[in-house]
Amino acid sequence: MSGAARRATRGLLPLLLVGNAAMYALYVGVPGVLLALHIEAIDPAGKVANFGLVSGVSAVFATVFNPVAGALSDRSGRRNPWILAGGLLAVPVMLLLGSVDTVLLVAIAWCLGQAVMNVYQAALTSVVPDRVPLTARGRASAAVGLGLPVGTTAGALLGAAFADDYRTGYLVFGVIVAAAAALFSGLAREERLPARAPMPVRAQVAAFGSALRAHDFRWAFIGRALLILGYFSVAGFQLYILKDHTVLPAGMAAEEAVAVLMPVNAVAMAVSTVLGGWLSDRFDRRKLFVGASALLASIALLVPAVSTSWTAMLVFSVVNGLGFGCYMAVDTALVTMVLPKAEDAARDMGVLNVANAGPQIVAPFLASVIVSVGSGYTPLFLVAAALSVLGALAVRPIRTVS
Predict the structure, then answer these.
(1) Cα 23 to Cα 113: distance, rounded to the nearest angstrom
(2) How far apart are CA 144 and CA 152, in angstroms?
């Protein structure tokens, strides 16, 4: 890597960290805390079913908008304007979300939130394959991955801080994303890529599917989808798990428990993200780290399955953070190495992000059914652990990356 490229990459990494941290802060603080409390306040008895419904339907918008926005940014040859537009639109959408008071209107508003946030996310995730040399993908992916623990911690703490005033909390998260988008688009210089010619709608749909015909990309997609399905089946219901499954210390509210667990999880995640990205670069062994970290995440899910204690949840947070942090850092690097075509990077990363958003459609429905049929959250942890094991095994058939 040339000196100029190295300097450009160094300047880009902190901006990637900030941009991703802001995104994850909203993704954790809004649906993980504020939205759950909002829905519970509207209908306490039906909170699990209603939350599952709102989360699942809104995830459809995430699934649709992510690859579409990626393809549009490919066609325009720019990423920064899409990052800025998605970030700025988060403010009015969060204002709208805070102003509604029925489950139906909450669902509509959060669908819009998912739409604008996935415009932001699709462009932001395309920056690494666009601007970072292959030899630095692990470090860049670590910077992206580090945004997860930083963002989740900030999201949990802010969510707990605004638990009694979720309307103001929504606005705060919107402003954070807008500020991060303005900072990134203002400081991260980009060279305009060649504009893409418009494609007929049928050809665009076929192009989205063409990425999945590539053997290695398809298995990377499957592995990501399985792990994310298991992760969000549990993570999406964390507040309710703490309220209805975990025996908390005397005097501790579930919102306060979230604010304790997230920093613990984040420290573990930060350590494994940085070490995983660096070690995968050093040893050039992406599949080994991805598979091992997915297996570790499955082990973490067994802990609260066999114990309802607060200690079990703390252990789960640490072990899950170690596994999931390393997985997201190294798997992101792996994926950028199996993209079918460099010129379609944003579109194909958008297709991969269907593996992030798509399981979020299924996860809330799956979780609510398992909790209802299984009479509790223990079966949910066991199913999520099995999905993580399958996600670990899915990287084995990948051929072009060791």
Answers:
(1) 12
(2) 13
Contact 354, 217 (CB under 8 A): no
**Which residue matches tokens 């297709």?**
351
Average pLDDT over residues 374-382: 87
Give all domains of the chain, ordered by start, each with its CATH number: 3-189+200-393 (1.20.1250.20)
Whether the pLDDT of residue 284 is over 60: the answer is yes
Nearest alpha-carbon partner for 169 in 59, 300, 25 = 25
Rg (CA), the chain: 20
Under the banding of pLDDT at 50, 70 and 90, the label for residue 304 is: very high
Model pLDDT, residue 257: 92
HSE, CB side, 13 Å, CA atoms: give it for residue 224.
24
Residues in contact with 83: Cβ distance below 8 Å, sequence separation at least 6, in sequence order: 19, 120, 123, 124, 181, 184, 185
Q: Output the pTM of the full model.
A: 0.73
Phi then psi dihedrals of residue 117, to 5 deg: -70, -30
